[in-house]
Amino acid sequence: MLNSVLEYLNNYFFKYTSTAKEYSYAKDITFTTNNTMAGDFTDTFLVGEYVLVEGSRINDGVYLISAIDDTTITIDATVDLTIDTEPQIDCTITKLFIPKQLISLIAEIKDYNTNVTTGIASESQGNRSVSYGGSSGWKSAFSNQLSVYKKLRWC
Q: Mean pLDDT, to the nearest integer, of 140-148?
Protein backbone atom coordinates (compact mmCIF):
# COMPACT_ATOMS: atom_id res chain seq x y z
CA MET A 1 0.00 0.00 0.00
CA LEU A 2 2.86 2.37 0.81
CA ASN A 3 4.30 2.04 -2.70
CA SER A 4 0.87 2.63 -4.27
CA VAL A 5 0.19 5.77 -2.25
CA LEU A 6 3.63 7.31 -2.89
CA GLU A 7 3.33 6.55 -6.60
CA TYR A 8 -0.16 8.11 -6.66
CA LEU A 9 1.21 11.21 -4.90
CA ASN A 10 4.20 11.37 -7.28
CA ASN A 11 6.16 12.10 -4.12
CA TYR A 12 8.75 9.88 -2.47
CA PHE A 13 9.92 12.58 -0.04
CA PHE A 14 13.54 12.86 -1.15
CA LYS A 15 15.83 15.54 0.23
CA TYR A 16 17.72 17.46 -2.42
CA THR A 17 20.87 19.55 -2.50
CA SER A 18 21.25 22.12 -5.25
CA THR A 19 22.65 19.47 -7.58
CA ALA A 20 21.24 16.05 -6.65
CA LYS A 21 19.28 13.83 -4.27
CA GLU A 22 20.85 13.64 -0.84
CA TYR A 23 21.19 10.32 0.96
CA SER A 24 21.18 8.31 -2.25
CA TYR A 25 23.72 5.50 -2.34
CA ALA A 26 24.80 3.15 -5.12
CA LYS A 27 25.28 -0.22 -3.45
CA ASP A 28 26.29 -3.65 -4.63
CA ILE A 29 23.70 -5.68 -2.74
CA THR A 30 22.59 -9.26 -2.55
CA PHE A 31 18.99 -10.20 -1.79
CA THR A 32 19.88 -13.04 0.59
CA THR A 33 16.53 -14.17 1.96
CA ASN A 34 12.92 -13.10 1.59
CA ASN A 35 13.43 -10.01 3.75
CA THR A 36 17.14 -9.20 3.84
CA MET A 37 19.69 -7.43 1.71
CA ALA A 38 23.42 -7.92 2.21
CA GLY A 39 26.01 -5.29 1.37
CA ASP A 40 28.17 -2.59 2.95
CA PHE A 41 25.73 -0.53 5.02
CA THR A 42 28.16 0.93 7.55
CA ASP A 43 26.93 4.30 8.88
CA THR A 44 24.42 4.68 6.07
CA PHE A 45 20.97 3.71 7.33
CA LEU A 46 19.04 3.43 10.60
CA VAL A 47 16.29 1.15 11.89
CA GLY A 48 12.90 2.78 11.31
CA GLU A 49 13.92 4.60 8.14
CA TYR A 50 12.11 4.15 4.86
CA VAL A 51 14.25 3.50 1.80
CA LEU A 52 13.55 3.36 -1.92
CA VAL A 53 15.34 0.56 -3.78
CA GLU A 54 15.85 1.21 -7.50
CA GLY A 55 17.73 -0.72 -10.14
CA SER A 56 16.86 -4.25 -9.11
CA ARG A 57 15.14 -6.39 -11.66
CA ILE A 58 11.99 -7.18 -9.66
CA ASN A 59 12.32 -5.76 -6.14
CA ASP A 60 12.22 -2.01 -6.68
CA GLY A 61 10.05 -0.29 -4.10
CA VAL A 62 9.79 1.38 -0.71
CA TYR A 63 10.74 -0.61 2.37
CA LEU A 64 10.91 0.01 6.12
CA ILE A 65 14.17 -1.01 7.76
CA SER A 66 13.38 -3.26 10.73
CA ALA A 67 16.95 -4.31 11.63
CA ILE A 68 20.44 -3.45 10.45
CA ASP A 69 24.09 -4.21 10.99
CA ASP A 70 27.21 -3.36 8.98
CA THR A 71 26.47 -5.98 6.32
CA THR A 72 22.72 -6.70 6.40
CA ILE A 73 19.46 -4.76 6.21
CA THR A 74 16.28 -6.54 7.27
CA ILE A 75 13.14 -5.02 5.79
CA ASP A 76 9.43 -5.24 6.60
CA ALA A 77 8.43 -6.94 3.34
CA THR A 78 9.12 -10.04 1.35
CA VAL A 79 11.36 -9.67 -1.68
CA ASP A 80 11.16 -11.90 -4.72
CA LEU A 81 14.11 -14.25 -5.29
CA THR A 82 12.65 -16.12 -8.27
CA ILE A 83 14.99 -14.64 -10.88
CA ASP A 84 18.43 -16.25 -10.68
CA THR A 85 20.25 -13.00 -11.40
CA GLU A 86 18.25 -10.95 -8.87
CA PRO A 87 20.21 -11.94 -5.78
CA GLN A 88 23.36 -9.96 -6.64
CA ILE A 89 22.93 -6.58 -8.29
CA ASP A 90 23.98 -2.92 -8.19
CA CYS A 91 21.12 -0.85 -6.83
CA THR A 92 20.50 2.67 -5.71
CA ILE A 93 19.10 2.94 -2.21
CA THR A 94 17.73 6.33 -1.19
CA LYS A 95 16.58 7.42 2.26
CA LEU A 96 13.04 8.77 2.32
CA PHE A 97 11.66 11.36 4.70
CA ILE A 98 7.97 10.45 4.77
CA PRO A 99 5.94 12.56 7.24
CA LYS A 100 4.53 10.67 10.24
CA GLN A 101 1.05 12.06 9.47
CA LEU A 102 1.17 10.44 6.03
CA ILE A 103 2.27 7.10 7.51
CA SER A 104 -0.78 7.28 9.83
CA LEU A 105 -3.02 8.14 6.89
CA ILE A 106 -1.68 5.16 4.93
CA ALA A 107 -2.60 2.93 7.89
CA GLU A 108 -6.15 4.35 7.67
CA ILE A 109 -6.19 3.60 3.93
CA LYS A 110 -5.14 -0.01 4.63
CA ASP A 111 -8.02 -0.34 7.11
CA TYR A 112 -10.39 1.22 4.62
CA ASN A 113 -9.34 -1.23 1.90
CA THR A 114 -9.83 -4.15 4.28
CA ASN A 115 -13.30 -3.09 5.38
CA VAL A 116 -14.88 -1.53 2.28
CA THR A 117 -17.00 -3.56 -0.07
CA THR A 118 -16.79 -2.82 -3.76
CA GLY A 119 -18.97 -3.76 -6.64
CA ILE A 120 -22.55 -3.12 -7.54
CA ALA A 121 -25.36 -2.57 -5.09
CA SER A 122 -28.89 -3.14 -6.38
CA GLU A 123 -32.28 -2.33 -4.98
CA SER A 124 -35.69 -3.39 -6.25
CA GLN A 125 -39.04 -1.78 -5.44
CA GLY A 126 -42.00 -3.31 -7.15
CA ASN A 127 -41.47 -3.19 -10.91
CA ARG A 128 -38.48 -0.84 -10.61
CA SER A 129 -34.87 -1.78 -10.09
CA VAL A 130 -31.96 0.58 -9.37
CA SER A 131 -28.25 -0.26 -9.42
CA TYR A 132 -25.49 1.83 -7.89
CA GLY A 133 -21.77 1.60 -8.45
CA GLY A 134 -19.82 0.36 -5.48
CA SER A 135 -17.04 2.23 -3.74
CA SER A 136 -14.73 4.14 -6.07
CA GLY A 137 -11.66 3.21 -4.03
CA TRP A 138 -9.19 4.71 -1.64
CA LYS A 139 -7.99 7.42 -4.05
CA SER A 140 -11.32 9.19 -4.11
CA ALA A 141 -12.14 8.42 -0.48
CA PHE A 142 -8.89 10.00 0.74
CA SER A 143 -8.21 12.55 -2.01
CA ASN A 144 -8.69 15.59 0.24
CA GLN A 145 -6.30 14.33 2.92
CA LEU A 146 -3.73 13.18 0.34
CA SER A 147 -3.83 16.37 -1.76
CA VAL A 148 -1.47 18.25 0.58
CA TYR A 149 1.28 15.69 -0.16
CA LYS A 150 0.77 15.45 -3.92
CA LYS A 151 3.42 16.72 -6.32
CA LEU A 152 2.45 17.96 -9.75
CA ARG A 153 3.67 16.04 -12.75
CA TRP A 154 5.38 18.21 -15.34
CA CYS A 155 5.38 17.26 -19.00
A: 93
CA dist 12 and 10 (Å) reads 7
Yes or no: say if 66 and 75 are a contact pair by the CB < 8 Å rule. Answer: yes
Sign of CA dihedral 39, 92, 59, 51: positive
Q: What CATH number is given to the structural domain containing 30?
A: 2.40.30
Q: Provide the domain limits for residue 65.
A: 2-96
Question: pTM higher than 0.85, yes or no?
Answer: no
Provide Rg for the chain, Cα atoms.
20
Name the domain count of the chain.
1
What digits encode the pLDDT tens for the residues 24-39? 888 888 887 788 888 8
Contact 2/104 with Cβ under 8 angstroms? Answer: no
